[in-house]
Amino acid sequence: MTTASTDVKEESGSANRRMQMSGLEYMQKLMRGELPVSPMGELIGFRIVEISEGRAVLELDSLERFYNGLGIVHGGIAATLLDSALGCAINTMMPAGKVFTTLEMKVNYVRPLRSEIGTARCEANVIHAGRQTATAEGRIVDSTGKLYAHGTATCMLFRQL
Prior knowledge:
Blueprint: H1 4-19, H2 23-32, H3 39-44, E1 47-52, E2 55-61, H4 75-91, E3 98-109, E4 119-129, E5 133-141, E6 147-159
Antiparallel strand pairs: 1-2, 2-4, 3-6, 4-5, 5-6
């Protein structure tokens, strides 16, 4: 059994490991299961299925537990999937010691996610990675390529203090 303080120490250890390796190396280790999934990733159930420089693909099962009162997956889940995939793509471009946070995000919902679609796939690609900001775009699709949402993010880059 872990305690809250143990969980914080484990997360701090993961963050410290990230500072010692490039974002791409960190993301590759996450995908291979060599590093623990973030608490958010574990809670929602994201899976990293593809990672390369400037690109990340995450999958999520469209489960009824994510439904809102209208009987569809809550839009916040789609936004979280997009934010995570966009952030992972940007992370692949970061050298050791450089981190980021989402500064702005735009989501366009095209159609509702429902459990019948099965797995939602979010494909994200970096558009620009500069010294202070990075931008990425992504799309949530089903197994046939049908579009459910798309969006962009701008992240602020900085050195870990």
